[in-house]
Every structure is written in C-alpha cells, then in structure tokens.
C-alpha cells in the first residue's frame, strides 16, 4: 500500500503558501549574491574573477543543499525531516546580520581564489545553505500533501525562478540606486526571518496533512528508475549552460565594468530559461529555440568572432547574449523534457546542481590553469550545439532544399555589411579570409539538422579564427591570472619620417594598458601618459618645484609614467597583480622601469588596503591609474577612497586621476566628490591636435586641497585644463552606495 495521500485537495491557498515560500527564498538568495559580491570587490581590486568565484561558491552550496534535501526526504520519516531542518535553520541564525568577517585580508603573494571561497563560507555559508535547500525540499513536501497537482510539482520551480529574476533585475535598478549596503544587509536579515516563518508553515501543513491521510486504497505504482545514460544526459545538459554562464560573464564584466549590474545580465537570462522551460508553454518555446539557434549562430560567428571590432559594442554584446540565451534554452529545454517521475525529483535536482557546480569549477579552477585565454567560452558554445535534439532522417531532396536555403542568410549578411559600412570601409573587413570564413559560417546553417556536423564545423571556424587572431596579433607573451588575461604584443607604426618602426604593447583583456617604442624614443612615455597629454603637461607645469617630490602611482601597467621621474625623487608603485610587475620589470618586454626608476618601490596588493599602511602626508603627487581592462574598480572612486588618498598627500600635494573610459562618465563621480568634500579640481579631456605616433586621446582629473596649488597647471594649460561641471542629479558615491546606471554614457 502507498502511504502517499490521495490527490483531492484543490485549495488555491496551499499553492500560494508553497509557491510564495519558494518565491521569497529565491528572492533572498539572488539578492544576497550581488550584495555580497559588492562587499567582496574592494578586497580584490574589483576583478571580474571575484564574481565568478562567488558564483562557484554559490553553485557548490546549491549542490550540497540539494544533496541534503535528497537525503533528508528519502532517508528520514516526515516528522524527523521537520526536526532536522528546524535545527539547521536555528543554527544558521548565528550568521545574522550578514557582514564581512573582521580582520580578513586576501593574500598578496598567491592566487586568492581559495581565500575568497573560505571567507564566503564562514560569513554567509549557513544562511545560503538553508536557502539552497528550500526549492527541492518544499517541492518534495508538496508532492505528499494531497493537492490535485501534487503528482507534478515541477511547476513550482517557476515561482522559484520568478523570485530569482525579480531579485536580479531589481538589484541594479531599484535596490542599488536607492538603498545603501548597511541598510541592504539589515533588510535582508529581516527577510530571512520572515522566510523561516513561511518554511515553518509549509512544514506544519506537510506533517499534518501527511499524518491525516497516510493510507490510500490505490495500489502502489512501480516507477522505473532513470538509467545511467539518462543521468549522464542530465549532467551534460546542466554542465554546459553553467560553464557558458561564467564564460560569458567573464567576457561581459572584463570590458565594461566589474559591477553587479553587468554580471546580472547573463545570470538573468540563465534563470529566465528555467522559468520558460518549466512553464506550460515549454513545448512551443523549445521548438522555437531549436529553430532560432542556428540562425542566430550565423551572424554571431561572422561578427562576434571573425571581426568583433567592426560592430558597436552594444550590438556585439547583444549577439553574445542572444547566442548564449538560445544555447541555454535548448539545453534546459531538453533537461525539462526529460525530467523524471516525482519519486526521483530530488535526484533530478541533485544531478542538475552537481553539474552546475562542475561547470563553475571547470571555469574557475581548471580553465585558468590549462588555458592562457578565455577559451572555455567558445569550447562550450560548440558543446551546446552537440546537445541539440537529434532530428529525424530527412530525404535527400529536403536536404538539398535546406542547403539552398543556407545561401540566403549568408548573402543577407554580406549585403547588410555592404549597406551598413559602405564600400569605402569594406577593405578592412571583407578580405579573402574574412569572406571565406563568413561563407563557411553560412554553410554551417545547412547542417542545423545534423547535430555533430553543425557543432564540428562551428568549432573549426571559431578555433581557427581564435588561433589566427593570436598569430596575426604577434603575441609574444600571454598569461591568465585571477585578475584577467595579460598579453604583450609586437606591433609596427609609421614614425615621424613615415618609415615603419617596431614597438611593444601591453594588453589587459582587450584594452591597451601601455606601449613602448624600441628605437630612439625608448624612454618616451606614450599612449595615455604622453608629453603632449595631461600628465606631460602636469610634470612640465611643476618642473621647478618637484625636484624632491615623493610620488605614488596606483596601477603599474608598462611603467611609462616612471620616465617622468627625476634623480632626487622617490617613487612607489602600487599594483594588485604580481604578473604585471614581472612584465614591466622584464627588459625583453618593457624597459621603462629599468631605465628610469630602477630603485622604485613595488607594493603588491589592493591599493586602498596598501595605502592605509603608508605614513600620513607621505606623497606630494598620488596618481590613481588602476584599471581592470577598461574600467576603474568602483571602490577606488568613493568618497572614503578620496579621503584616504588625501590623508596620504602633503598639504600642497596633488591627486591625479585617470578616468579614460568608453562606457562610463567617471568625471561625474569625481566632480561631485570635489563639490561635496570642498577640494579644488581641474579636468582635461585631451585629444591630440595632430597625429603623433602612440599619442592618444585621454581624460584626466586633478584635485588638490587648495585651489592655489592648481594655479601652475591652470595657467600653463592655456585653456586645456578646465574646472569640472556641476552635476546636480548625482548622489554621492560612498562605500555604502554606488550607482553605475547614473553615469552610463
């Protein structure tokens, strides 16, 4: 006889209770993720790897939460389940209110990944574990409460994912712009207490209903256990989207800004896919996703991989997000389609979470050690194509028709490029190799019904392009660290006499962080630090008074600023990534440091943490030039950060801030700080008046305690240095509050 109650209860209130509890639990979980990521960022220089490591930690705890729910619901009686779960919840209360542990600082001489995971575990491990158990455990309880839908509780997963989506979308647009971090922590803790009350109500109903209706007259149905092959299929279908999520997140957050706003976009799409594939419209949505995936794949390969530079960034980002979303939709759609009977519900979620954890661990712990670039991302694009559902055999005539149809997307793509960019710009893009590769991308569409052929052809195209790009870029050194991918390249320019001349470039991700000519200009500062530019003007303006200056520079790059040093000056560089120091000190790559400041002090670690230990009023000039690819870490831009900088500057000292950025108007933040904190300030948005080799447009902000100290710069700037504008719509950025949306260009 089965001890599962008969399905007779049709009350809406029961669905509301369980679905509401899942909704609240998921909301709390996905508010905690960006909230705690934002708390951790300042300790690790704003690196995108902080978020990826946090994601792996969350996936690990999600797996252990699902394992706990599986063992609890299959090994223990119903009342014992409630008792054990209540004890776990009560223990988790010791972690409230959520906060960073005191006296925790990351290692400066080794990879901080394990340190970050441990810090997360001791600070939010217990509450997050409880949240991770809720979805699976409550669905299992619901399958026994006697509701008429108890036979298929998977639809409750929609409530859970809806809560996740609401939390993720509300964080950058509602919570972050309006609520400070301290208030966020307090409100979250109150919400966690409310969730405990809801879980208690679900547990009470589960026990009461089960005990009242524990005998049924219906014969027990034998449910066939899932095969090993089916379990491996679930594993693959969950592993690939998880790895793709972190791969795309790395791409997005490296080149715009390491802030929760942009991390949230891929995760939102990832969760939305779960909501759609477990909804009542899952079948038609899955058919559309399978149909659209190879169509979107064509322009995705043609533009985002063959020549991404030709597209506006927002359009390139849209292509990446579209290809990612369709890939995870197809994988998660297959996962939902092959879900088992509720007798194996917890096993299904357990395998799914285990695969998600493996995907995250692959990207965070394995890929950085076996790849010197972000190669796991294209690898998983190909793997996602291998997981497409196999099509039925078609006649040769049908394949011929499809083959002819494949020509039209390629022609439309080429024609669109012709119209959009104009005939004059085609030479840079439509070379023989590019044209051939685009045609191959078009050909891949003909294999959309042949899973292996489509995946292999796509893989060949992508990895051929990746290898070709590395070869053509003349990369002589490439290293992947916790803080990003660093590369040194050989390049050629036309010098002042119109002759070709070699030089070297340093890249962080896709952004140039420095360059050095190898001929007679070997000690000439270039790019953002050129003599015609703002920094050259600054050192020239103070040439008569800077003989014995103490100079501090946050962010080393190739070390170009060092060549403004004078013999009597003392220079200190603060750099978070030890590999950057190795590159800048290696004369085979760059010789600025060796030639200009061989005795300069090097301090490894996050700038704010390192500066705190420096003596008060030590520096006469402090330069903030810290970038993660193209973005300044937000914790270096707050009021508290500026107050720290000025505490380390002499009474007549200067603070120079590099704010060149493609996407964010950082001048708004610093202008508001100058107004609020009563500092004198000047800004220059420099554009070269004539074409000079490796002299580029750049923006710099200079602040001082007294306006008198900026007069030499203002006087000699001949109108190039100006007082910053006033921005009345700005709310001051502090360690407790930042709003990236408000400064978007």
TrEMBL record:
Which Gene3D superfamilies does the annotation name? Vaccinia Virus protein VP39
Q: Which residues cross the membrane?
A: 12-37, 49-69, 81-100, 112-133, 154-175, 187-211, 232-252, 258-278, 290-306, 312-331, 343-363, 369-387, 399-423, 429-447, 454-472
Going by the UniProt record, its keywords in alphabetical order are: Membrane, Polyamine biosynthesis, Transmembrane, Transmembrane helix
Top-level taxon in the UniProt lineage = Bacteria
Q: Name one GO biological process term.
A: polyamine biosynthetic process
Looking at the keywords, is Transmembrane helix present? yes
- Per the UniProt entry, the signal peptide is none
PANTHER family attached to this UniProt entry: THERMOSPERMINE SYNTHASE ACAULIS5
Which NCBIfam families does this UniProt record tie to the protein? MFS_SpdSyn
Protein name, entry field = Spermidine synthase
